[in-house]
């Protein structure tokens, strides 16, 4: 045996909850590119959206807040990547988060997605536009029974209070396009480095997958922004957001 041979890279087993969405599909691709074993959970009617990955991942059909589906999907996983969406008005986000918190292995890395509107400690400074969006569009979406932002807040409250190895990745406004690289981050919205408020969706997914192996992000709620945006270039990451 060659004494200088490198050990095989660790082949993590990861579950992606909400795998068929735009963010989910990018996460599947990044995870497969890293050689990880991937289990994806998505709604029955969305299974076809994952056809491009057929034979390279396991797909479990079901609602992401179905505790039985989640229990089976996360069994034996080293990490769980969860797309938290506040769809409907029946606790979809909090149900999904609770199922993951309850059924993932205690030592698993749990990485969740949400937007800048979620605050961990109340020290984020928001633009008028974002405040108005939450104050006006939030209640309207609930009235139309389309989405319940308050339930996503509740989901995040439970995650922040848990003693699991969680990371809450808070996305800025998103755009499509080729990867620009790993986004930079800061603890608080309002910090100058985040001012550009734009991240490529493919890079949001990259940050989520990368967080699985970045222990500096355990029990952190990084607010992210694209690494090539003007604010990121003008304020190189130091301190918490530096890698
Ligand atoms: N959009 C933004 O501008 C933005 C900005 C910042 C952060 N974020 C965060 O990014 C994450 C992904 O957001 P996204 O907007 O980019 O969406 P996305 O990746 O397309 O994901 C949407 C998810 O919602 C599911 N979904 C759609 N309709 C549903 C329904 N009626 N019932 C249950 N689930 C349903 C989708 O599943 P199917 O594939 O089954 O439809 C998919 O998993 C979220 O955590 C969000 O908070 C988004």
Automatic annotation (TrEMBL):
Transmembrane segments: none annotated. InterPro entries: NAD(P)-bd_dom, NAD(P)-bd_dom_sf, Polyketide_Oxido-like. GO terms for molecular function: oxidoreductase activity, acting on the CH-NH group of donors, NAD or NADP as acceptor. It holds the Pfam family NAD_binding_10. Residues 18-214 form the NAD(P)-binding domain. PANTHER family: FLAVIN REDUCTASE (NADPH). This is NmrA-like family protein. It comes from Micromonospora cremea.
